[in-house]
């Protein structure tokens, strides 16, 4: 009988180990966290349309987007700032993202104009910055005005008044180290909303949003459309309209995640090798069948304008090329026939631009 117990134990051990390994693998597999932030909620309805409220539209879109990401990206952890009709203070939203150590923050909203004015239509994607137009200021003032629903907001936000233009001067002196990545995702998103969802283009913009100010990761705020426009309100409240919007943002997310993975492709190998014994080898894969059709370059910078070849912004790198992606310029260094050759130069570029990564071109076009 004792022997039978021993045999049973030996039979069970592999299964138990398999269970532990499966759990560990599942935990390790989720390497990217995205926070979805449906604006407003609870006592704060957000912008009001003829028949609907902003808080309800954006919550529905956020849930559908999160479900689509979960269904197609097993390595992504989706976190919501709210999943019910609940009021979340403005400063709590970035705190949720920071606590989750997120890699991307997406805040969803609907735009609106005073009902006495004829409402425009279209989508806008915002990143943090100083407003450059009166329109941008008005959007920021409206979205920031949610703080008046909070107790002691004057003290909590250090005297910030969402209705006073002078309060926004603080954003002029802020340096956001995630600005380039934020602009990259914003550009991808706006492109998909225009070309995929066929919405009216109101461009990628900068403005002083409090919800983006404290996030420790790339962050964007998407205005899905004008709820004050009868046509767009109907569209944003329909299942078809929401699904199209979700598909466009999801496509942008997938493209951004692919670039993120490329930037971080070798980080695990490099970290592992640093503390490994001398017998450990790190193998860097090369492109299969390199026949000269695929060209490898090192992308190091994204900008909203075109620089001259000898610009100081390049920090001495030469030769430099660029390609346009939507309304932004993406700058690359070098040209290599193999991925191995490009990777041999990557650390040199990373010393100047830490987010540099290898990209591929075929017949002069970027492969994404």
Outline the fold blueprint.
Layout: H1 2-29, E1 32-38, H2 54-72, E2 76-80, H3 92-99, E3 104-111, E4 123-128, H4 134-144, H5 153-156, H6 179-195, E5 201-207, H7 210-213, E6 219-226, H8 230-237, H9 239-263, H10 267-274, E7 294-303, E8 320-325, E9 328-336, H11 339-350, E10 357-362, E11 365-367
Parallel strand pairs: 1-2, 1-3, 3-6, 4-5
Antiparallel strand pairs: 4-6, 7-9, 7-10, 8-9, 10-11
Helix pairs in contact: 2-9, 6-9, 8-9
Q: How would you explain this protein's 3D organization?
A:
The chain has 368 residues and is of the alpha/beta class. The protein has eleven helices and eleven strands. It has a six-stranded mixed beta sheet with strand order 2-1-3-6-4-5, sandwiched between helices. A hairpin with a 2-residue loop joins strand 8 (320-325) and strand 9. Helix 2 (54-72) crosses helix 9 (239-263). The N and C termini lie far apart (62 Å).
For the CA atoms, what is the radius of gyration?
Answer: 24 Å
Terminus-to-terminus distance: 62 Å
Give the low-confidence spans. Answer: 5-28, 266-290
In one word, what is the shape?
elongated
Mean pLDDT: 77
Structural class estimated from helices and strands = alpha/beta
Order of helices and strands: HEHEHEEHHHEHEHHHEEEHEE
Largest sheet: 6 strands, mixed
**Strand line-up in the sheet with most strands:** 2-1-3-6-4-5
Number of alpha- plus pi-helical segments: 11
Helix coverage percent of residues? 25-40%
How much of the residues is beta strand, in percent?
15-25%
Oligomer class: single chain
For the secondary structure, the number of strands is: 11
């Amino acid at each position: 009988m004792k022997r039978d117990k021993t045999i049973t134990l030996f039979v069970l051990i592999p299964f138990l180990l398999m269970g532990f390994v499966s759990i560990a693998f599942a935990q390790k597999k989720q390497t990217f966290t995205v926070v979805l932030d449906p604006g407003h909620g609870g006592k704060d309805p957000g912008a009001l349309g003829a028949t609907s409220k902003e808080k309800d539209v954006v919550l529905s879109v956020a849930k559908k987007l999160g479900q689509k990401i979960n269904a197609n990206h097993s390595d992504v952890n989706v976190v919501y700032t709210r999943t019910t009709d609940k009021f979340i203070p403005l400063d709590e939203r970035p705190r949720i993202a920071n606590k989750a150590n997120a890699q991307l923050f997406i805040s969803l909203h609907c735009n609106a104009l005073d009902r006495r004015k004829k409402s425009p239509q279209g989508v806008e994607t915002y990143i943090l910055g100083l407003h450059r137009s009166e329109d941008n200021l008005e959007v920021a003032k409206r979205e920031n005005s949610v703080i008046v629903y909070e107790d002691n907001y004057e003290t909590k936000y250090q005297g910030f008044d969402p209705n006073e233009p002078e309060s926004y001067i603080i954003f002029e002196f802020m340096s956001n180290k995630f600005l380039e990545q934020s602009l990259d995702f914003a550009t991808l998103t706006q492109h998909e909303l225009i070309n995929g969802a066929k919405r009216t283009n109101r461009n990628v913009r900068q403005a002083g949003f409090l919800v983006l100010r404290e996030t420790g990761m790339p962050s964007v705020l998407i205005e899905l459309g004008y709820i004050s426009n009868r046509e767009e309100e109907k569209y944003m409240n329909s299942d078809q309209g929401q699904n199209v919007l979700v598909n466009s943002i999801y496509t942008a997310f997938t493209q951004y995640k692919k670039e993120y993975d490329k930037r971080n492709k070798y980080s695990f190998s490099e970290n592992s090798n640093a503390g490994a014994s001398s017998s450990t080898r790190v193998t860097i894969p090369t492109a299969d069948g390199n026949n000269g059709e695929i060209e490898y370059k090192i992308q190091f910078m994204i900008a909203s304008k075109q620089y001259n070849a000898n610009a100081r912004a390049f920090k001495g790198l030469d030769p430099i090329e660029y390609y346009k992606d939507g309304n932004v310029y993406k700058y690359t260094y070098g040209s290599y026939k193999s991925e191995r050759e490009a990777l041999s130069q990557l650390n040199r570029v990373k010393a100047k631009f830490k987010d540099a990564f290898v990209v591929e071109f075929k017949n002069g076009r970027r492969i994404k």
